[in-house]
Amino acid sequence: MTIGIPRALAYHRYGTLWETFFEELGIPHIVSPETNQTLLAEGIKHTVDESCLPLKLYMGHAHALLDRCDALLVPRLERLGKRDEFCVRFWGLPDTVRATFQDVPLLTYDRTSARPDSEKRAFLQIAKSLGKNYRAAANAYRAAQNRQREADFQRLAQNRPLLRAKAPKILIAAQSYIAHDPRLGGEVISLIRDLGAAPICIEAFDRTACHKAAQHISTDLYWTLSREILGAIHLARGRADGVILLTAFPCGSDCLANELVLRRVKDLPVIQILLDEHQSREGLATRIESFLDMVTCRGGVIPPASPRRNHL
After folding, report:
1. How far apart are CA 110 and CA 77, in angstroms?
2. Are 43 and 58 in contact (CB under 8 A)?
3. What's 223's DSSP letter?
4. CA distances to 121, 224, 239, 265, 279 from 299, in Å
5. What angle do CA 137, 139, 140 make, to 5 degrees?
6. 3-class SS at 52?
7. Which pLDDT score is estimated for 150?
């Protein structure tokens, strides 16, 4: 049996955990290719117009796996703690995929409890459904958890040194499935580098520290991913030169969180960039270059010349 894993949404947070778990159990798995225009077009065909862009991409990734696997891994993620909830798109994701691709079996687990051991129990449930015993499942989960911690630390280690860069430092305040998708945040990060600045993802800051720091901007926000973004913005004060709020249309949770940032963060230059399926690289380049010009003029910093800047 081969398990298909769509390279979208929670994959960018838990991908290492999932892949290692199946590897340790000896179960073949395959991950969809990186996002491209074909995948996006296929996802648009299989979703309603009002769906958010990350969900459209997810459906495109799921469709790319249909003929290559025996079941799709589609978890239901609701909460991590009493006040830490995922966006509702994660709550209903298995139902959405099941209703769209009715002939494909789903392998799913529910992360609906705030109990500390809820994730382990969910993974043991997956292993049991695949015919694996408790000991094998527990060992596989432990190895997967350790590998995921290593991957998280590596991403932190890659981003944290950028806070000391001499170039203008720009925090990419975005969900991981936006920042690390080549079709979405990948283009923005590439443009920032081309223009001589240093793009920093929120993984430069520890998640626990971000959750605590988020209260300096909002004490009421309960979406886990949004709180991490707000906390990273607060921790970036005095360390970053500007913030790009990178949002995919029409994300409701980001709209609220971004409004809080725009109203309450006054000591950092902030720009909001909304991404959709019709975006062009040229339009992004114009907005980012204008923002960087404002940031560098404000700080009295002149970024090094770059081929991209000369071209523009």
Report:
1. 6
2. yes
3. B
4. 51, 32, 12, 17, 30
5. 65
6. coil
7. 96
Contacts of 224 (CB under 8 A, 6+ apart): 79, 80, 81, 84, 85, 86
The alpha-carbon radius of gyration of the chain (Å, integer) is 20
DSSP secondary structure code for residue 77 in this structure: E
Angle between helices 252-264 and 224-236 (to 10 degrees): 20
Beta strands 84-85 and 79-81, pairing class: antiparallel
pLDDT at 144: 96
> Does 161 sit behind a cis peptide bond, omega within 30 degrees of 0 on the bond before it?
no
Q: Where are the alpha helices (DSSP H) in 162-223?
A: 176-179, 185-194, 207-213
What pLDDT is stored for residue 114 in this prediction?
A: 63
* Residue ranges for the chain with pLDDT beneath 70: 113-114, 116, 299-312
Residues in the chain: 312
204: amino acid identity, one letter: A
Produce one character per residue of 144-168: b if its CB has 16 or more CB atoms within 10 Å, e if not.
bbebbeeebeeeeeebeebbeeebb
Residue 8 is encoded by which pair of tokens?
A: 């979208």
Q: What is the DSSP string of 270-281?
A: EEEEEE-TT--H
Instruction: Please tell me whether residue 232 adopts helix, strand or coil conformation.
Output: helix
CA gap 186, 150 in Å, rounded: 22
The reported pLDDT for the residue numbered 311 is 43
Return d(Cα 194, Cα 16) in angstroms, integer.
Answer: 29
pLDDT of residue 227: 93
* CA distance linking residue 57 with residue 74, whole number of Å: 14
Query: Is the CB of residue 76 less than 8 Å from the CB of residue 90?
Result: yes
Show the tokens assigned to 163. 């806070």
Run of H or E including 110:
strand 110-111
What's this model's pTM, rounded to 2 decimal places?
Answer: 0.89
